[in-house]
Amino acid sequence: MKPVSLDANQPRHFYRGGSAIARFRGVPARDEHMPEDWIASTTAMFGRGDDGLSRLPDGRVLRDAVTEDAEAWLGSDHVARFGSDSALLVKLLDAGERLPVHCHPSQAFAGRHLGCAHGKTEAWIVLEASDDNAVIYLGFREEVGMDTLAEWVASRDRAALVDALNVIPVQPGDAVLVPAGVPHAIGAGVFVVELQEPSDLSIMIERAGFEFPQGAVLDLGLGDRLALSCVDRTSWGGGRLARVHLRHGSEVAHGASLLPAEADPFFRADRWRFDGSESLEPSFAVLVVTAGSGALRAADAELPLARGATILVPHGAGRSELAGDLDLIRCRPPAPGSTNEEVL
User: Fold this and answer.
1) pLDDT tens sequence across 184-193
2) How far apart are CA 30 and CA 22, in angstroms?
3) Of 2-6, 53-57, 165-169, 255-259, which range is least confident?
4) Are residues 80 and 146 in the same domain?
5) Per-residue model confidence as pLDDT tens digits over 71-103
6) CATH of the domain at 167
7) Where are the beta strands (DSSP E) in 190-267?
8) 151 in Cβ contact with 179 (< 8 Å)
9) CA distances from 178 to 120, 212, 239, 256 (A)
10) How many angstroms separate the Cα of 160 from the Cα of each of 140, 180, 198, 205, 241?
11) Run of H or E residues at 152
12) 143 and 267 co-located in one domain
């Protein structure tokens, strides 16, 4: 089991973006509707067949390879809890336009109504923000009644919906946890590393002003009333927002977690910024190199590292050695002993 470098995996989406991903990876931009790069994905897009699944450099579908040798890829402790499920999806996401307001079901809701093992709690680590006005939208400022929310959706009143949300300025280095159910959107010009539960379950609350594909299922096939019952309609004030929005700035402790502690049952992300060498313990991990250059050595293999590289490290590769002048984010599944509960 050796680490592998993964090429871009950008399925087409309805919203615009992708130029920041191309710049980050150092490749030409191809299509303005490729705003997401699904890294080490064992998750397929909702209703889109195999779209979204990653392939290894030898051509194998990663999901199939993990299923065939789960302990080598994921480790015995992980397999004891999750089986051959990687329990993680990592993306690069470049919002070329503001995303529509939407939310994702919780694990409990997804299991009860959709037969899915995962909901979609997610988190964003901001790599770039186009200007000082870059923002995200997260949670209702004041509690919203179900009838009011249903009326906004039915009448496509996007102004009322967007006006009801908290608008939060963001800058590079910020990390934001988005618990399942919380309505949210990423503003134009924000480029993030996204960690999430491995599902593609989205309920579109804002339905006007976007080029949704003909026949797109905006309510996951549940009908609006049931779908909207998963929305967190409570008030998200300053105290709650402070718990999920962390502003790290340029100084981050070596190997420090980037996300709030409430994210640990869903996924983990830590930052490694150094000039020299470092050793990482065995773990299934996705490395996103954000700056610098160097090398990764593991399992008698060496991979060059530079800004824009995305590396998949199997647990079976053993201890990894990093060398060079590097800044990278390591993304991992939840710790096997953590308890996956709804948060905040």
Assistant:
1) 999 999 999 9
2) 8
3) 255-259
4) yes
5) 999 999 999 999 999 999 999 999 999 999 999
6) 2.60.120.10
7) 190-196, 203-204, 245-247
8) no
9) 9, 23, 15, 20
10) 11, 22, 31, 12, 21
11) helix 146-155
12) no
